[in-house]
Amino acid sequence: EVQLVESGGGLVQPGGSLRLSCAVSGFTFSSYAMSWVRQAPGKGLEWVSAVSGSGGSIYYADSVRGRFTISRDNSKNILYLQMNSLRAEDTAVYYCAKQRGTTVTTIDYWGQGTLVTVSS
Amino acid sequence: DIQMTQSPSSLSASVGDRVTITCRASQDIANYLAWHQQKPGKVPKLLVFAASTLLSGVPSRFSGSGSGTDFTLTISSLQPEDVATYYCQEYNSAPLTFGGGTTVEIK
After folding, report:
1. Which residues have C-beta within 8 Å of that of residue A42, sequence separation ≥ 6?
2. List of chain B residues whose C-beta atoms are within 8 Å of the C-beta of residue A46
3. What is the pLDDT of residues A51-85, one digit of tens each?
4. B61 neighbors B54 (Cβ within 8 angstroms)
5. Torsions phi, psi of A61, nearest 5?
6. CB of A53 within 8 A of CB of A111?
7. CA of B99 to nearest chain A CA: how many angstroms apart?
């Protein structure tokens, strides 16, 4: 059974940093690309970043490029999102998501999400 | 970047009605189109990928069609458990883009 468990969310002040983690199980982690997708309160889904199965290809949304860093540890089956210079508009539930193949493709499994609140 | 436009943004229909949701891409994405369902307070769930392939376990009343720039998700006979927001998502290339969502309610 595919499981994606996010952690690391919380309340942070504007300009602060936070690192999200996603521990996965139930599939061969290194064989699949992974994404982070966020959803602001009452809003739609916004793709944030993706990394290929090997970690060699990385992609970002314009809204986070230069501030967020995605990474993965295939030996520990963990996906990360380092978020720096956080803004109020980054407030959202952040979902870890598995993709169907080793490169960027559709999402087929979603984690439960972790809430990030950026506020003073 | 590719823009995805969904319509309508919301709809209300009766149980048993046929419901159609449309998604238009700003450029040709072949069949690299998925549909996700998000029930109120829940995590999104993949329903359809490759424009028309139903994920295993998804009720057969759901169907997807289209290619190029125009796509549809159809619920042939709306059921109470289908109340949700539906999102299209293109995966032709990064950045991946979601449509704005269509909220389906029961009349």
Report:
1. none
2. 98
3. 999 999 999 999 999 999 999 999 999 999 999 99
4. no
5. -75, 150
6. no
7. 8
